[in-house]
Specification:
Strand order of the largest sheet of chain A: 3-2-1-4-5-6-14
CATH superfamily of the largest domain in chain A: NAD(P)-binding Rossmann-like Domain
Helix content of chain A: 25-40%
Oligomer: homodimer
Strand content of chain A: 25-35%
CATH architecture of the largest domain in chain A: 3-Layer(aba) Sandwich
CATH topology of the largest domain in chain A: Rossmann fold
Shape of chain A: globular
CATH class of the largest domain in chain A: Alpha Beta
Largest interface: A-B, 69 and 69 residues
Amino acid sequence: MKTRIAIFGYGNLGRGVEAAIAQNADLELVAVFTRRDPAALRIRTPGVPVLSAERAPEYRNKIDVLILCGGSATDLPVQTPKYAAMFNVVDSFDTHAKIPAHFAAADAASRAAGTVSLISCGWDPGLFSLARVYADAILPDGKDETFWGRGVSQGHSDAIRRIEGVLDARQYTVPISAAVEAVRRGEQPTLSPRDKHLRECWVVAAEGADKARIEREIKTMPYYFDEYNTTVHFISAEEMARDHAGLPHGGSVLRSGVTGWNKEHRHMVEYSLKLDSNPEFTGSVLAACARAVHRMAREGMCGCKTILDIPPAWLSAHSGEELRAHFL
Amino acid sequence: MKTRIAIFGYGNLGRGVEAAIAQNADLELVAVFTRRDPAALRIRTPGVPVLSAERAPEYRNKIDVLILCGGSATDLPVQTPKYAAMFNVVDSFDTHAKIPAHFAAADAASRAAGTVSLISCGWDPGLFSLARVYADAILPDGKDETFWGRGVSQGHSDAIRRIEGVLDARQYTVPISAAVEAVRRGEQPTLSPRDKHLRECWVVAAEGADKARIEREIKTMPYYFDEYNTTVHFISAEEMARDHAGLPHGGSVLRSGVTGWNKEHRHMVEYSLKLDSNPEFTGSVLAACARAVHRMAREGMCGCKTILDIPPAWLSAHSGEELRAHFL
C-alpha cells in the first residue's frame, strides 16, 4: 500500500518534495496544488494533475497526506491549521520562536478533525532538533551549540533584496572555524552571534545605485545583520548567475558533556550535514515524514506532532525485521 | 514520579549506569544485584542495597525497570528473556548478527508477561543505529559506512588475553583516515575490513614467553585479527597501568546520498562520537532508555522494542512543551 501524497505550493521546496517522492517506491504523488495559474505550471512527474489551490478539498479521500510547501512567515500559520481540518498534513515551519503557537493552532484543528499534523520537520527544526534532544537526554550535564553553513540563507537573501537599488542578492551564513573548533574540543565557550557566524553577501546593484548606502543598510539591518560581522561584495548579474545559482547549506550540532562521579570523563557528540541542495534535502525529509504521518494516522493517532514524537522506524520504508537485521 | 531502577551486574557498565542515574533527578537507583558475594561489593550510591542475584524476583513491585549490565556472549542471551518475564528490562546486547534471535526470545518473554524489554541500546547498536536509519530514510539513494575508534575494543582485548603467555592486553581499533576522508568526500568507495580499520595491540607478556609466537597468534586469529593490518607492541605491566588505564572509544556513521531528477545533488550526513569512557557513556544511554521504557510501560505497550521504536521525546526528562520551546 503506497502513501498517496499531494504537494501544496510548487516553489523550490515543492519541487524538492516531488523529486524525493520519485526516489521512494512506497510514496506516490497524486496532485500538486498551486495558488498560481495551474495551466502555467509544468511539473516533472508524468500524469499528475496540477490544480488550483481551491480544489484541494476535493482530494479529501484521495490522498493520505498533504505536504505544505509554503513559507513560514505568512503561508504556513494560515495553511497548516486550515488544511489540518481536512487532511493529515506535514510542514517545515521554521520560525523557532513561534513554534509553540503554531503547534497549538495545528493541534486544535487536527484534534477537532481527527487528523495528524506534523510540523517543523526539515533539518533545523527537524534533524538538528533530534540531534539536540538525543544528546541532551544522554548527556544531561553538558552544553550544545548549533552552527549553520556554509550555506545560502533564503531569509537573509530576501531581506537584502528588499533594499532600494538591489536587483538580486545571495547571503551565505558562514560558521567561524575557531568557534567550531573550541566547541569540538569540549571547552564549552560562551559565544555571541558574532563569535559563531559570519554573513557574506553578494549583491547585484541597479545601475547608478549608491553602493555605499546599500552596504550600510545591509550591515546595520536589525536582527538580520547588525549582530554579525558582515561582508558585502557587489557583482554583476552574470557573475550571480554563474557563481551563485545553487542553494547549498548544512551545519553541525555539537554537544559536549561530562560523566563520572567527579565529572572526570568528557564526551563529544556531533551531528553534521553538508548539502548540495537545501530544498531537495528538506523535501526528502518531508517525504519521509509523510510516510510516518500516514503510519501514525493508521495507528489511530491524531493531533499535532513533531519529529520528536515519531518512532524512528516509522520514517523508514523498511520493516522492523529488516531494520533489526541490517541497520541496528 | 521517579523511574525506579535496579542494576543487574556491577562491572564497568553497571558502574557507568550507576553514575548516569546520579546525574538524572527523575531516575532513582533502588538496588544492585550481583552474582558475586554482595558483601564484597562497594557501590557509590549511599543507602542502596547490594543483593544476591537470586533475590531479584523480590523486587518485582519495587522497581520500574531492571537494567541488565552483563555481557553479550553468554549473560544476556539467558538473562534478558529470564528477567523480561518479571520486569521491564533494558540491555545493550551488541552481537549484531544475533540480534533477530535475541529479539525473538525477549519478545516472547515480554509478551507473555506484559512487560517491555528494550534490547541493544548503547551507541552501536543504539545511537549509531539511529543515525543509519534516519539517514537511510531521508537519502534512500545512498550508501553508509560506520567507522569505530580510535578506542579500546573489550572483545578484542579479551581475545588476546586468552593467548598463552599473555598477562594483560589492550586492543585499540583505529579508523583509517584515508578511508574516512574518501567516504566524507562522497566517493562511496568499496572498502574491505582492512581498508577501514587498523588494530593496534599493547601486550604484557609473561616472563620468558615467546613473543614472536604471541604476535603470530594475534595476527592470524580468525575474524578478530586476520582480516586487518595489526600492530603488536610489548610493554611492561607498569606501562600498561600508566598509559592504557582508560576505556575511550567513539566513531562515526557517514551516509552520502544523491537527490534530484538527474542525481545531480550530493549530500553528506555524519554522526560522530568521541568518548572518554565507553562504559560511562553507554551507561548514560541505558539510563535514558530506562526512562523511555518506563514511559512505554505506562502507555500500555508490551513486547520487545529497540531504540528505533522509541519516540525521541520519551528518552528526554523534559516535557513536550519544553522540548518544542527550547530544543526543536
